[in-house]
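Hi R.,

As promised, here are both runs. First protein below:
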Amino acid sequence: MSTSDTLMTPVVVLNCPRTTKELITYVRGVLVALQGNASFSSPPLSLTVFAADIAALEEAETKAATRAKGAAALRDARLAKVKDDLAQYRVYVQSVVLAIASSIDAAALVESANMSLRRPTMRNTPEISAKNADVSGKVVLAAKSLGPFVVYSWEYSLDQANWTPMPATRKARTELTGLTMATMYYFRFRADTRAGLRDYSQIVSLVVH
């Protein structure tokens, strides 16, 4: 893959606000958007359960405002449950969108679920670099940092057809040892972010020393 390649896979993202009250409004919008939406007829979680979880969070948020003992902890637990519900719906919407051929139709479909579509743009700079270390058979890989709370899943290959996974890291850097000298290797990574799993990065090659 060249540095000018464009990755065309659409990525569904959530529009979650920062405060709990605003989040409640947002998730209610998602609930309403999915109810009766023929494009999303088989959600992974019942909308009735989702509605109940939202109602429980709203009740807990009201109690937390009174500063009653244990109210904040209860609110946080119910907030986590609603966020987990929302994450399941995002993954579901993503799976439906991947089957849509038209980018215009995909965007409209995502909008109908009260979510957004982020499409990767043209990349003119490498996302990943590979260099030989000071020890034979050792390579240092570095990715363009995507911020906190990101997991980087690394892979290498000898032919760009069969890929071998490496240990995932939370840092945008890793090392690989025991490689065969004077051999061409290919490397790539995939990032799992708060917004979901991204496309594979560009592929870089390196003759190992």
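And here is the second one, sequence first, then its structure tokens:
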Amino acid sequence: MGSPTAELAVEFRDVSFRHASSRNEPAQSEAILSGLTFSVRQGETLVLLGRSGSGKTTTLKLINQLLTSTGGEILVQGKPLNDWDIIQLRRSIGYAIQEVGLFPHFTVERNITLVPHLEDWPKERIEPRLRELMHLVGLDEDLRKRYPRELSGGQRQRVGVARALAADPPILLMDEPFGALDPITRLELQREFLALQKKLQKTVVFVTHDLREALMLGSRIGLMEAGELMSISSVDQFKHSQEPLVRQYFEAFEGIV
């Protein structure tokens, strides 16, 4: 039987992050995150819920070292971030964001297979993986030679998710990936995400400010406010929580969820 730590994909141990307020005044800095301590179990979807500016995206970016913490320790797959090769770390973590971040001069197939190409996968491995991914996220085969500008918002988002999954990473980071879509397309992709997660059992850290999305997609919900993690619990526990901030969210979405 493995140790409890071996079952954890991501761990935050008293993590803080500060922004220097000025290049000329390095001693002065602004606290963005403070005292973050939580873990993400392998195969679960932890949703970080909170209003804009609560620190959700910053937390996400610390996991793949797009930002570096200024205090505490972060472990990925049981290994401290300082022990990872940063390139291998990022290639082992899928990353999907609201703006999609597709390369405009790359075709759909080139965008999706970017990491496999960087990893020097042979062509006979890349081609079937491309077809599998396009089918998995609901993209028609005839879209593979198109460029991002020729796609709808929903299609671009599907390409972004396919690219995040391309090298079969154990961990996915998703930063409001469906936030810019119209309500019907958003619901469609949320349902597809649930089906994908049921099939693939990835470890997902998912950022949103939408309570409905958090309740629909999460295994657990971590509620953030002003750079602190105010609560973390199962969806059912969250629904019945009497914590004032949690109740504020339900009041804000009253009649919708």
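A quick note on the second one: The mean pLDDT is 89. Let me know what you think.

Best,
J.
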